[in-house]
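Q: Protein A?
A:
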Amino acid sequence: MERRIRGLKTALVLATAGVAALVGVPAAQAATGPAPVGASSTLEVKSAVWGELHVGDCQQNNGTMVIRSDGTGDWSATTFTYHTHSGDVWHSSFDFYTTAGYHLFGAGTFDSPRMSDGNPPPKYNWGGHFTFNPADFNGVDIYKTIQHSRC
């Protein structure tokens, strides 16, 4: 089963917190800004978080995409399955777009470990690292990132 998840449409900017809240299917949050303390002052970061997603018998929680102005990115998530006979695997890939909707680049496919079910089902924390052309960083509208997921 494949599901295209368009999770990052701009809906509301919370000026006091400096955080953008997003509405889509599913709801997500995104942020942009300088890198954490201790990192190079010229390194900028854009990030997005998907809350809870479902594909078939599988669930993803707190999927987090981080891209940096140096052309590096990281994906992480927690996944589990409610029912499997052969061990489910969550697959995610991403497409990054400009504000105008121009496709800049893709990342992934990232695959979870083979998951077993149970009561309660075990949770699997996993992720992946990728690189992209740093010249594309400023053009990325993190709110338009699309996650494609299968399980």
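Q: Protein B?
A:
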Amino acid sequence: MIEMGSVLPVRDEVSTVWFEAVDRGELLIQLDPLTGNHQMYPRAHVVGVPDRAPDWVRASGRATLYSFTVVKRSVHPQFSTFVPFVIGIVELEEGPRLTSWVVDVPEDQLRCDLPLSVVFREIHPGLRLPCFTKA
């Protein structure tokens, strides 16, 4: 049997700020203070500029569905009780894309470019993550 710990996101010195914000119901992304470009996932430096640290800023929470899949049979036993579920790539209003759960949207209403907004859900005991739902 595979332990759930093998698929949980890693909380480390760089991502702790992000996880703490999620626990408060805030979605943070990183911003290059020089160019104004946003980035996501949490990194210790600006993409392509290893000597410049990014700033943390609050994201609007608005996004569009870029791509998605409806999982009807999970190959990972820890997710078998969640099926069916939707995993999507969402494009934040600020530009970065991230992989997330899409929740509370009937399957027949799913489509690329669907306007979404962030909601926060506990997907595992003690693990709250940003998910997205129809705006």
